[in-house]
Structure formats: C-alpha cells, structure tokens
C-alpha cells in the first residue's frame, strides 16, 4: 500500500499504452532497417568485393529506406489525426446542438459497460459537467483529445529507428576483412534479429520463441536470396 492507502500497482500513467506503442514501433523500425540494409549490402558483396560499391549501396539504401519510412509514417499518422480531429469536431457539434441526447448516449455507454442505470447516469452527469467532449471522446471514440499522435514525432522516430538498424550491417560489412565480411555480417544481423524479435514479442505480449524464429528465419531468407542473386550477377559479369 502507498502512503495514501492506495495499492502500489494502482493506475499507470494514462500515456503508458501510447509509450509502449511508440517503443514497439521503434523496435520494428530498427528491425526493418537491419533486414533491408543487410539484404542490400550482402547482395552487393555477392557481386563484387569493391569497398566503394558496398559503401555507396549501403548509404543509398539507408537514406532511401529511412526517408521512405519517415514519409510513410508521416502520411499514415496525419491521416489518422485528421480522422480523429474530424470525429472530435462532429462530437463537439452534437454536444452543442443536442446536449440532452448526448448525455443519454453517454449514460447508455456506461450502462453497456456494466454500470447500474442510476450509477451510469451519475457518472455521465459528473463527467459531462467536468469536460463533456473528453468524456464522449473516451467512451465513444476511444480518443484522448489531449494526446493526439504527432505526425512529425512519428516520422522522426521511424527515420531514427530505421537508420540505427541500418548502421549495424553497413558498419560490419565495411570494417571486417573481405573474406569474412558476408559471414560476420550475417551473424551480426541474425543476433540482432533475435534481440529485436524478443523485444517486440515481450512488448506485444506474444510468444517469444515463435516471434524470434519468424524474425530470424525471415532475415536469413532475405540475406540468402540477395546474396544468391548478387553472386549470380557477379559471376555473369553484369
């Protein structure tokens, strides 16, 4: 029990779920960066031993991938935020035009959640007196008007996480000797995929072994496929 008599495991911060979603997105972004850049540079390594070619391909893949992720996330979150704002505007208009009907609706929502009719009405009246839009946004729309996702934050997080993930295979393949670069890069990538698979599974409450196996096998297949193509093209002199 805390000093005020409440259990220590009482309510988490209201933005905890949002923070976990951000963290999960960052892990997945880094995972994408690792796999896509590893596949690219290992494919190039199969075709040529040129350090310049690896650097050029790796940096091009890193920048293209991180920008693509950032733009895609910006567009996606902007669309979601526009929809949320439109829903909030509609709700506010309904509150202004038909407040009694909206109070009845809110009461019905709390009754549907299991509250007795009298208690549901009392809760609805109390929350409506405090902040009617916030009450309806939470119960009806599942939106917190004060915590709409920032498209710029989402884009920045995607850019950074993808870049960080991409730097691992690119750094390894550029620094190790040519005779070991593919094997060591693949080993480093698979170890990283094991870590990101474990992290994403635990954040999402999913079975860890299945997530890790799926992640590692997917990365291994991607690297094997691009290396095979690169080797074939290199052998053909293309």
UniProtKB/TrEMBL annotation:
<feature type="transmembrane region" description="Helical">
    <location>
        <begin position="182"/>
        <end position="204"/>
    </location>
</feature>
<feature type="transmembrane region" description="Helical">
    <location>
        <begin position="52"/>
        <end position="75"/>
    </location>
</feature>
<feature type="transmembrane region" description="Helical">
    <location>
        <begin position="151"/>
        <end position="176"/>
    </location>
</feature>
<dbReference type="GO" id="GO:0030026">
    <property type="term" value="P:intracellular manganese ion homeostasis"/>
</dbReference>
<feature type="transmembrane region" description="Helical">
    <location>
        <begin position="216"/>
        <end position="236"/>
    </location>
</feature>
<dbReference type="GO" id="GO:0005384">
    <property type="term" value="F:manganese ion transmembrane transporter activity"/>
</dbReference>
<feature type="transmembrane region" description="Helical">
    <location>
        <begin position="21"/>
        <end position="46"/>
    </location>
</feature>
<protein>
    <recommendedName>
        <fullName>VIT family protein</fullName>
    </recommendedName>
</protein>
<keyword id="KW-0812">Transmembrane</keyword>
<keyword id="KW-1133">Transmembrane helix</keyword>
<dbReference type="GO" id="GO:0012505">
    <property type="term" value="C:endomembrane system"/>
</dbReference>
<keyword id="KW-0472">Membrane</keyword>
<dbReference type="InterPro" id="IPR008217">
    <property type="entry name" value="Ccc1_fam"/>
</dbReference>
<dbReference type="Pfam" id="PF01988">
    <property type="entry name" value="VIT1"/>
</dbReference>
